[in-house]
Structures are given as C-alpha cells and as structure tokens.
Amino acid sequence: MKELKICHLYGDLLNTYGDNGSLLVLQWRARQKGFNVSTELVSIDEHFDSDAYDIVFLGGGQDYEQYVISKDIQNKKDSITRYIENGGVFIGICGGFQLLGHYYTTASGKKIDGISALNHYTLNQVNNRFIGDITIIDKETGEKYEGYENHNGRTFLGEGVGPLGEVELGFGNNGEDKTEGARYKNVFCSYLHGPLLVRNVHLADRIIDIAYSQQSK
Ligand code: GLN
Prior knowledge:
By secondary structure, this protein is an alpha/beta fold. The protein has one domain: Class I glutamine amidotransferase (GATase) domain (Rossmann fold, 3-Layer(aba) Sandwich). Helices cover 27% and strands 32% of the residues. The protein has helices spanning 19-32, 63-72, 77-85, 95-100, 196-199, 201-215, and strands at 2-9, 35-42, 55-58, 89-93, 103-105, 111-113, 120-123, 130-137, 144-151, 154-157, 165-169, 179-180, 182-184, 187-190. Strand 1 (2-9), helix 1 and strand 2 form a beta-alpha-beta unit. The protein starts with a strand and ends with a helix. The structure holds glutamine. Glutamine (GLN) binds at residues 16, 60-63, 66, 94-95, 150-153.
C-alpha cells in the first residue's frame, strides 16, 4: 500500500482558526487516493528527522506561542532547511509562514528570529490587523483559493521566492503589493486559514500528488 507520512510541526501550539482542518483534509484526501496515512506531532525539545516525512504542516498562532517556538525551532533549523532543500513538501500557515523567514516583528515590536529557510521577513503594524475573508489567484495554475486571514504581520518576499497567489479580495502578505503567501521549491505558505485546504480541496490534492512524486526521487 502507498504510504504518506505527515508531520504536524508544533501542532500542540500552532493551530488557530481551524488550521487543524487542513490537516484533516490532507489525511482524508490521501486515504481516498489509496494511501495509508500516518501523522506524527513534533514539538518543543523533539527531534525533527529530515528524512522521515512526505508532508510537513506548520500552522498559525498567537505571538506568545510564536515567541516560544522561535527559540526551539533554531535547534531544528538545519534539519528543516535540509528537508526543504531536498524537495520536501512543507505547508506553512500564517505564523508558520512567518517563522520560515528571516524574522518576525511581534505586534508589540519585539523582533524574533525565524529560520531563514525562505527569503522573506515580516514587520508589524501599529494598532491594526489584517482581518477578513480573502481570495487569491494562483498564477501557476490559474486556480482560485478562498480563506480567512487574521494577522498583524506584514510579510515582504525577497528574491527567489514567489507568492502563492495574487490578492483579489483582502490584504494578503502586506496590504501593499498584492502578493499572498509564498512558493519556494515544494513549500506552500499562506496567510489563509479558513482553513485553507477545507475550502480549497484542489490544493490539497495537488500537494498530495507532489508529495507522492517526491517519493520516487
Ligand atoms: N501572530 C501572527 C500575526 O499576528 C500570526 C497570526 C496567525 O497565525 N494568525 O501576524
């Protein structure tokens, strides 16, 4: 039987606005496609094995949880970066997206380190959050994704990283340049909770197909 191994990274700490629903849809769709699916939670003080998974899911959360994780994730920085560079499928939502970049500035102005696995950074904004429904168009596939965003952070993409989509409705990465999320190798990042894969099952299918194709490489 085909196997699909999923890692829910810091799943006990980062799981806001229904992010866990995305994980459930990944499991459900993969089972429908004939996979035997196993899911492992990897959290604080635990080792991340860069060879052990087909898909890694890192959700969103509050600044406090992100601060705690920003310390621990430095110990996993090399293995997560290796996993990504080797073509591993990685989904980062909101706070998880922010932590993959160079740094994140919390709403109170504290600069916390990301792991620089992706070339982006996140600034804060004063007394404002980007909240509401959001629709984006994936320029790679022409597909539309719908979701819900709620973030203080304003993310700016650097060279080598593309957006997941172009904002049609809502704020996206920073409210300025119409970019939403990030794409790098087999990494999919987004500010869309919603949860993203429940509302956009076609994206879950694409991600599972990519993960499966990586097994034969
Ligand atoms: N705490 C981060 C922010 O406010 C991430 C929020 C989230 O994951 N929804 O920008």
